[in-house]
């Protein structure tokens, strides 16, 4: 290696050896996702509002690169950052790194995803979607358009998954308590768009009097929307989706979906940093913060409240 390269390498390693004063390390599942870039926007906005703090934002090339994320957390601990906001890619693999942060008295706020119970003592707050509340909001949006009688269907994803149990359970319980709507079936796509498309096509064909339908996660809702469009039922069967990618945003804009419930990725970043700053400053924080969902319809799809969460 040439002297110039050696000097450059030393300068790089030296600059990375110690954190800047008041540095907050935000470490997400991957930087290659519009969802996580929305988290970054929120985190950056909160860091700018907090006096005396700076922000670094990192994530692996993919969500499956768990070892890379572990290394990022360990490096942040070694560099003695002021605090860490983490979206853990794996519930078990990150626990040892979080223990190191705890031992180093570096506060940690988790967003989006929990770690295993063995890591509970190593973080101070968790911010995420309250899936049961999100399911209830989705049901309320559907009832607002279809009324309280008739047939509806639920297009779900993986039976028994934690988010599915809360989200679809909350949806169904709200429907049962607040309407006389009949749920003709719950169908599980295994989070496969093509499966959801085929299942929705079958449901629409076998229930010509269907009034409404709920697609409970992104690939399921996209498949549901495509089936509705292909069947010529856009606007005739009231559809509510979940999550907010480009396909779902366009389905809302063209009327294929009445609404889609979008998780607050911007809020996760903004409130995650705000909560961490409170911890650093010795203030009490809530152990759980619901970052909520935004019900995106034609009425608000172009407004900041929706643009901050769509990805």
UniProtKB/TrEMBL annotation:
Location within or outside the cell: Cell envelope
Record keywords, A-Z: Signal
Major subcellular location class: other
Domain Periplasmic binding protein: residue ranges: 24-284
Endpoints of the signal sequence: 1-19
Pfam family, one: Peripla_BP_4
Keyword Cytoplasm attached: no
Protein name, per record: ABC transporter substrate-binding protein
Source species of the chain: Janthinobacterium rivuli
């Amino acid at each position: 290696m040439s002297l110039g390269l050696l000097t450059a390498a030393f300068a790089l390693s030296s600059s990375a050896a110690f954190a800047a004063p008041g540095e907050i390390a935000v470490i997400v599942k991957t930087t290659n996702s519009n969802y996580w870039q929305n988290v970054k926007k929120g985190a950056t906005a909160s860091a700018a509002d907090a006096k005396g703090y700076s922000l670094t934002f990192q994530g692996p090339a993919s969500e499956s690169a768990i070892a890379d994320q572990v290394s990022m957390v360990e490096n942040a601990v070694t560099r003695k950052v002021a605090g860490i906001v983490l979206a853990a890619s794996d519930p078990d693999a990150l626990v040892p790194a979080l223990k190191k942060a705890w031992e180093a008295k570096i506060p940690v706020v988790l967003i989006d995803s929990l770690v295993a119970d063995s890591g509970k003592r190593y973080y101070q707050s968790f911010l995420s979607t309250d899936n049961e509340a999100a399911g209830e909001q989705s049901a309320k949006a559907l009832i607002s358009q279809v009324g309280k009688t008739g047939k509806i269907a639920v297009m779900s994803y993986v039976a028994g998954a934690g988010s599915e149990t809360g989200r679809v359970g909350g949806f169904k319980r709200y429907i049962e308590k607040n309407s006389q709507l009949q749920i003709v079936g719950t169908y599980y796509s295994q989070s496969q768009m093509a499966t959801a498309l085929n299942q929705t096509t079958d449901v629409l064909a076998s229930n010509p009097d269907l009034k409404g339908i709920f697609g409970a996660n992104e690939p399921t809702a996209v498949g549901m929307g495509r089936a509705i469009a292909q069947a010529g039922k856009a606007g005739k069967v009231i559809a509510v989706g979940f999550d907010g990618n480009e396909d779902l945003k366009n389905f809302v804009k063209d009327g294929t979906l009445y609404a889609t419930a979008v998780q607050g990725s911007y809020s996760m970043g903004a409130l995650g940093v705000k909560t961490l700053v409170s911890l650093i400053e010795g203030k009490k924080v809530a152990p759980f913060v619901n970052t909520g969902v935004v019900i995106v319809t034609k009425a608000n799809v172009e407004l900041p409240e929706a643009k901050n969460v769509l990805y």
